Amino acid sequence: MLTWTDATPCRPRVPARGPSSLFKNAKFNSGTTQFGDAVARAEFWKSVSTVSPNYHALVGTPTIASTLSINVPAADGAVTVDPSSGKVIGLIDINWFDPMLQTLLTSYSPNMLPFFLSNNVYLTSGTPVLTNCCIGGYHNAVPTTKGMQSYLYTTEADAGVQGGFSEDVSAASHELLEWFNDPYTTNVVPNWISPIAPQYGCNNALEVGDPLVGVLFTVKGFSADHLQDEAFFNWFARESPSTALHGRYTYLGKFKKLSKMC
Q: What is the CA 83 to chain-centroid distance, rounded?
C-alpha cells in the first residue's frame, strides 16, 4: 500500500500472488509445471528431452508479508487519471523509489527473493508525470552486509489501465523470468535490438522480457494470469538452428529470426 504526502491518498489493494501460475503448476507446452520452469525447460529442450528429463528450476511457495505503507514526497510522487481507462493511478519517480526500496532489504537474506508488488502504481523516468511513464517493474541486486541481495518490484494493473500494460501478472512474469536469467544484472550478450520493442534501443543486457513487451498469453486454469512471452538465450546468441522446443527463439515462437546486430 502506498500513500503520497501533499497529494490525494492512494491506497490500492494488492492481491496475493500465491495462486498464480508463477508459483503453481499449470499445463504448458513443455510440461505441467511453473511458468519459469516451463520456459527454462523449453529453452534447453535438446538437453532436457534427452539427457536431463528431470531438470527443473522452481521457486518456492511465496510468503505473503503484511501490506507496507510508504510516504512519497510530493516532488517524487503523484496521482493522476489514466487516459486509457479513466482510473486513478499512482506515479513515482524511480530515482527516489529504488533507493528507498533498498532500505527495506535489511529484513531479508540473499537466499530469499523479496518481491514488492503494488496495484495501479507505475514508476516514471524522472518527474512523476504521464509523459515520463510508465515503468511496470524492474529487478536489481545490491551488496548488503549479508551478501548480494536481489529483489523485484512490479505493479499489478487493473484491466485496461495504460492500455493493458502490466495487466495482472504480466509485469511480474516479465521480471521474474529476467531474474531467473540474470539475478545480479551483470550478464551480457551480443548487442541486440527488438523488432517490436524499439524503445530498448541497441542493448547488450540479457533481459529476456524486454524484446517481447506486450506479447501475452494465458494457460488453462489460470485465465486471469496474462503471462508474457520470453526470448530464449539462442535468440540473443544467434544460434541457428535453434535447439529449443519446436526450434523456437521465444517461448511462443513470436520471433522467427535471430536477433539483429546493431
A: 23
